[in-house]
């Protein structure tokens, strides 16, 4: 395993463990998900450069666009949750009350 692969896989696993162990606030969960998406984007971009194929070059930009859409939708849900429930604690959210 090269150093770049180790760096991106450890970046993904650290973001995943942060999401699992520190899910008190919705904002911290969203930030960990954004870190996971950025590590996937960087890994996919380097993989595209390693393969040296132009067929996969647009795929990393598509992943980055989906990541930006996910971040904006997550922040909109964070604002809506803070307005309706009064806080962004994940424990306060109950899907049966919505």
TrEMBL record:
Membrane-spanning segments: 28-49, 61-82
Reactions catalysed, as given in the entry: a ubiquinone + NADH + 5 H(+)(in) = a ubiquinol + NAD(+) + 4 H(+)(out)
Keyword Cell wall biogenesis/degradation assigned: no
GO BP of this protein: ATP synthesis coupled electron transport
Gene3D superfamilies registered for this protein in UniProt: 1.10.287.3510
Membrane topology: Multi-pass membrane protein
Entry GO MF terms: NADH dehydrogenase (ubiquinone) activity; oxidoreductase activity, acting on NAD(P)H
EC number: 7.1.1.2
Keywords: Electron transport, Membrane, Mitochondrion, Mitochondrion inner membrane, NAD, Respiratory chain, Translocase, Transmembrane, Transmembrane helix, Transport, Ubiquinone
Role according to the record: Core subunit of the mitochondrial membrane respiratory chain NADH dehydrogenase (Complex I) which catalyzes electron transfer from NADH through the respiratory chain, using ubiquinone as an electron acceptor. Part of the enzyme membrane arm which is embedded in the lipid bilayer and involved in proton translocation.
Protein name per UniProt: NADH-ubiquinone oxidoreductase chain 4L
Source species: Gerres filamentosus
Gene this protein is translated from: ND4L
């Amino acid at each position: 395993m090269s150093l770049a692969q180790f760096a991106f896989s450890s970046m993904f696993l650290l973001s995943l463990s942060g999401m699992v162990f520190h899910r008190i606030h919705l904002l911290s969960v969203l930030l960990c998900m954004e870190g996971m998406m950025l590590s996937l984007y960087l890994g996919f971009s380097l993989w595209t450069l390693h393969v040296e194929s132009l067929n996969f070059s647009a795929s990393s930009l598509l992943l980055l666009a989906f990541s930006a859409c996910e971040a904006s939708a997550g922040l909109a849900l964070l604002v809506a949750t803070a307005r309706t429930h009064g806080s962004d604690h994940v424990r306060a959210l109950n899907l049966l009350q919505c």
